[in-house]
Every structure is written in structure tokens, then in C-alpha cells.
Amino acid sequence: MTTNHARYACLILLAIGAGAALVAAAARVRVESANRTVALILDYDQLRQLSTVGGLTTREVLTRLQKAGATHVAITEQTLRTAMQAGEVASAPRARDEGAPYPPPTASFVGPSETIQRLHRSLVERLGQRAATFAPVAARTYRLDLRSGDPADILDIGIGYPLSAVQEINQAGLAFVPRPFAESNQWQKAADAALTLAKERNARLVIFAGTAAPGYPTDIARVADAFARQGLLFGYVEFGKQYGDMALASRLPHSLIRVHSINETEMLGTSVQRAADRFTLAVRERNIRACYVRLFEPCGPDPVAAAEGYVSKLATRLKSHGFELGAPEPYGRLEVSAILRWLAMLGVIGALGLCLLELLGCRPLWVIAIIAVAAVLALAGAFAALTPMAKLCALLGALALPTLAVGRKLGTGPNFGRTPCPKLGPVPSFRALLLFAASSGISLLAGLFIIGCLADTRFLVKLDQFSGVKISHLVPMLAVLLLQIGWGLGGHGAAEGEAPLTTLLRGWRVAGQAVVKYWHTALLLVGVAGLGLLLLRSGNESGVGVSGLELQFRAVLDRVFGVRPRTKELLIGHPLLVLAVARAMAGKRGGLWALLALGTVGQVSMVNTFSHLHTPVLISVARTLHGLWVGAVLGGLLYAVVELGERVWQAFRRRFVPDTDDAA
Q1: What are the sequence ranges of the domains in the chain?
Q2: Of 71, 106, 188, 356, whose Cβ has the fewest other Cβ atoms within 10 Å?
Q3: Does residue 423 carry a pLDDT above 50?
């Protein structure tokens, strides 16, 4: 078997995988496009405070904000402690009813009849019929007698939601969102009681308050079953800090609504414009379908009008991007068969085969054997453990294709760039831009394979993620760097038809014997620091915060392009790659190894864009295209600046630096 035969086999697998991945991508686009309804949820306690400051009734404030665009209002569940702190419920002397068929009371409480009845129901549902009794003591005032347990143990028990508040919300044309306290729902039957109450109040979406999801850590499965029985939706708060919320969400992938919120502390340091930008970005780019909108502190002559303006601005922004406001629904099932996903995996296997052939010059029979074994293992994994095998193939594609794109297409051959193109001007040639586009296309195949291999609803709603983001940044860059050093130093004196691996080994040997200078060490330190920052900034949850200046720059890019291209593609990777290609074609190979390695940043960043699987495919495509064309333009400008700088330097040297031979 010849190298061409093996190459054709790899290309066929690559084509099959790309076709299967396109089918999976089309299915995902259909699912994403079908879900365009977003909820704007306000907090009832804030609205009540706003009505007091603004001199209006709560009903009037609700009506005005509903007209501004709000769709839901959330009420945090009352507890006995909060009811007592608000003065709604008070302790009372224990009643003396020794002759009653119940145990003597351990504590007594008095309050409005509706509140006391809710407290009684909560205790009975959690502790049984003999837990408490209640009786009227005056007009609309009841007394509750706790018949078992310590009063301190029930202070944080959830006692439901004021019926009058729920009625006000519904009468204003808004939907009610209950927020039960999960801590009080760790008791046996407590979660069932909380969800049953939510259903009785005609709620559909439930967002838990507190620091833990109900049932955590041992009864998550039972709570998920209760959600299914009641037909309720679980509001999973993005960037939330609740223990067990991911475990519960993982059991409810098709009853899940992703919620974005700006917490109270963050609200103190933000503006209306920035908050609207943040919510809009979350909805457009992270599949958020419920915005929990906290209002700014009431101030000014008309705080209600200010709140109206904020809600209206957010509603208008969302509508301008094609979203509707209303009751959110979970994403539909992304149904992609295991066979189709296996076919997408074949594309990755073909890419690995091409890397072995083109970059290392492995024997064709070995390559065919390797891809055959890999195809069989992938098929077995597709039926035995689909998700782990798919994640492995997605990672391998993210490693192989950017390396192949930059390593092979842009100067790994020892004769590339040795013959300068005629009549090169101060701008890159069309051929250079074409090679940049071709290399980017090869890298983008990795993004396509990630979509095809991981076509599942769990990835769509971020219950599972692409694994290996940092590795997929690091490995291609290091691989391209090693390849370029090996080719550059090993290509001198290479025999005709010499094996690529022999040339690489010679180059690495020469590099290992080179004298290290101080500027080499300084450059290495700068490179390591830059690489470390890049890795820290990469990933689904970055380990490094974003500065205020960068946030403003991102906001400008969002407004200019509609979908913000990535900064490291726009300003670093793509311009340097265009510069590297153009200089290589001009026969200027000095520092080419560094330019190509840095240019790989843009390629791996494009792949990383598609590894954020909770971002809609069309958004990722738009972001990538904007980065490519703007990066190419900036690369052309950079090339012109470098060429001009070199010409100026040469003219300066000819005029002011004496020729040492003439001086001698």
C-alpha cells in the first residue's frame, strides 16, 4: 500500500465524519431555534419595598412592570422565623388543655388565620397529624399549639407563600414562581410537600432559595421523581452556589430551565446598561431562558418609573434579538443516534491518520492498521459507553486538526518558502490569504466534530461539558512549535525523499546542542507567563477575572459586530498567522517558528468556541467568521507595518552603519 492510498483512506473517513457531524449540527440548530421564549422574573420582596417608597400599592407596581415586560414574580417561601421577625406570628403562652386527645403543647403561636393554617399544614405534612393543632382565638386570629418536638427545630421550616401575594401576582397578569427553602426541605416528605404546594398555586417553574438543593446529599433521586410527578420545571441558576443543584439538574435534563441572575453584591457595582448587556448576552449565547431580574435600589423622584425603564430596556433588547417574553420551556430532545455519532468519530480518526502520515511520515500500513483498530474501538464505545468515547474523540479532534492545519499547511515542509514569490508588495498575496483560510478551515473541522460527537441535550444545557479545554489549548501550540523548530533546523542538508521523522529528529538534536543566551531565557520566561495566562483564561469557568477595561472593550465589540469575536483570535492569533504565511512565502524564515506557534492561538481559540456546547451553533459560527475576516485584515496591516519597518531599518543601516569590510 502506498502513502497516497493511506492518505485517500484518511480523507474518506474525514469526509464521512464531516457529513455525519453536519447532520448532527443541523438537528441541534433546529432544537435551539425552536426555543425562543424567555421569562423576566422579578422579586416580590423588592416590589413590595418599591411600592412603599413609590407611594403606590403593590398591585399598581405589579401592573406597571407587567406592561414594561415582566412575565413572572418570585416569592421566597416564608419560614416561621421570618414570619416572627416580621411580626406576623408571635409566641404565646402555652395553652392548658390536658384533657385533649393530643400531647400537651410544647409551644404556642398566634397570628393571622391564613398564616397559622399554612404553618399547621407544613408541620402536619412533615411531622404527622399529631404534630400540631390550631384554633381561633379572635376574629381572623388563630393560635397554633406545637404538640411534639422542640420549638427551635421548626423555626426554619417552610410555611408556604401568602395567598394574598400570589393572588396579586396573578391578577396583574404575571406568573408565580415559588422559591422554597431547600434547607427546610431535607426532612422526610418535605420536598414532596413543597412541590405539591407549588403545583396547587399554579406554578410551573421552581427556583430554590438557600444554599442547598432539596434532598442533598442522599435523596436527590426522590426529589427528581417528585418534580416529574408534579410536572414542574427546575430552575437551575447559572453560577449558583447551591450544594446538590447539579446533581438534581442532571436527573432533570428535559425539565430544566437555565436561570441567570445578578446577585445583590454585584448589583451595587453595575449600571442599567451593563446589566441589560449581561442578561442579553446570557440569553443569546448561553441558552438562558429565565432572567431573575433584581431591581436597583429605589432612588430619585420616581423610583417606580426608573424600575419600569430598566425592565423595559431589557425586554426591548431581548425582543430586538428575536426572543419572545413569556413562560419558558425546556429545550427539546436532541435525538442523534449512536451510529451517526460514531460516523462523526470516524472523521477524528481520519484526522489522526493524516497527522501520522503528513507530520511524522509513518508507514502507510501502520496508519491503516491504527485507524482500523481505532474505528472498531470507537464503534464498541458508541454502544457500550457512548458519552465517554464521544468526549475522547472530540478531544482528540481538537488536538489533531489545529496541529495538522498549522504544522503541515504552513511551512513544515523543508522547501516551503525557499523560493520567494515574485513581485511581493507591502500587502500579503492572495495565495497567502488563501492558505490562511484553508488552514482555518481544517481547524474548524475540529469544531464540527465536537458538535457531531457531543450532540446530546445534556451538553446543550451544560449538564455535561467538553473535557480538556486547557489541554486542547496547550498541546497544538507546543506541537507546532516543536515541528517548526525541527523542520527549520533539520531541513538544512536533508536528502531528497528523506523521511520526515528523520528530518525532525535532526532538527531537535541541533536545537538541543544550541548555545542558550540571556535573551533566549528572557523570551522563554515571557512565553511561559503568556501561556500560563492563556490557560488560566481558558475553560468554561475561567480562573482569572476580566478587567473593567476589557469588559468595556467586549461591550463595544458586541455592539459593533452583533456577536463579539474573541480577542485572542482578533488581536493575536489570526494576524500573526497571516504575517507568518506571508513572510514564509516571501522567503523570510527568520522567527517563523515563533510566529506560527503564536498564530496557533487563533486556531485553538476557534475550536474552543465550538467546545462551549451551551452556546448556540449559529452564534459560534458568527463569532468565528467575524474573527477570521477582521483578523485577516489586521494581519494584512501588520504585514505592511513589518515590511515598512524592515525597509526603513535597511535604509538606516545603509546610511548610518558603516560596512565593516569597507572600513577594513
Answers
A1: 36-77+163-325, 79-159, 386-494+522-542+553-655
A2: 188
A3: no
The DSSP code sequence of 330-345 is PPPP----HHHHHHHH
CATH class as words, domain 36-77+163-325: alpha beta
pLDDT tens by residue, 238-288: 987 788 899 999 999 999 999 999 988 889 888 999 999 999 999 999 999
Q: Which residues of 314-336 are buried (b: 16+ CB within 10 A; e: fewer)?
A: bbebbeeeebebebbebbeebeb
The predicted-structure confidence for 528-573, as pLDDT tens digits, reads as follows 777 676 666 665 555 455 566 766 777 788 888 888 898 889 889 9
Average of pLDDT values for 157-180? 93
Sign of CA dihedral 380, 383, 384, 389: positive
Three-state secondary-structure class, residue 400: helix
Give the closest residue to 312 by CA, choosing from 299, 301, 325.
325
Q: How far apart are the C-alpha atoms of 1 and 8, rounded to whole Å?
A: 11
Distance CA 490, CA 469 (A): 32
Q: What pLDDT, on a 0 to 100 scale, did the predictor assign at position 515? A: 67
Residue 210, sorted as left (phi over 0), alpha (psi -120 to 50) or beta, turns out to be: left
Q: Model's pTM, two decimal places?
A: 0.86
Q: Measured over all CA atoms, what is the biggest interatomic distance in the chain, rounded to whole angstroms?
A: 124
In 3-state terms, what secondary structure has residue 258? strand
Query: Grid coordinates standing for 129?
Result: 397529624
Please classify residue 189 by burial: count the beta carbons closer than 10 Å to its beta carbon, then call 0-12 exposed, 13-18 middle and 19+ buried. Answer: middle
